Amino acid sequence: MIDGEIMQVEPENLVTEVLMLKHRDYRIIQICAAKAGDRIEITYSFGKEYKMVGLRISILPDTEIVSISDIYAPAFLYENEIHDLFGINIKMISLDYHGNLYHIKKEAPFKE
User: Fold this and answer.
1) Class of residue 28 by CB neighbours under 10 A (exposed 0-12, middle 13-18, buried 19+)
2) What is the distance, to the nearest Å, from the Cα of residue 108 to the centroid of all Cα atoms in its chain?
3) What pTM does this model have?
4) β partners of residue 65
5) Confidence at residue 64, expressed as pLDDT on a 0 to 100 scale
6) 79, 64 contact by CB (below 8 A)
7) Model confidence over 14-53: pLDDT tens digits?
8) Which of 4, 18, 78, 108 has the fewest Cβ atoms within 10 Å of its own Cβ atom?
9) 47/103 Cα distance (integer angstroms)
10) SS (H, E, C) 99-111
């Protein structure tokens, strides 16, 4: 991957791509979700020395995705946040707060 590149991947290939970055000594920097029309884009950012690359999946709001928290432990916080704010079902989160990471009045406020 080229420095600064964000590669679009299919949700079913996410774990494979993340493992390849892990084996090339990349660290996770952040995971960000954003509405994009009727879809939600989730961008995973990774860094190695002074190089930064990203993986992006684009999903429908009812799509279930697999956690990467077994690969990068800190991902559990981002994934719980995405679940709470966007209502995305993320299976196999290493530490799953089951919708209780945030105490918010409206369930999944960014889902709509």
Assistant:
1) buried
2) 16
3) 0.93
4) 90
5) 96
6) no
7) 999 999 999 999 999 999 999 999 999 999 999 999 999 9
8) 4
9) 31
10) CCCCCCCCCCCCC
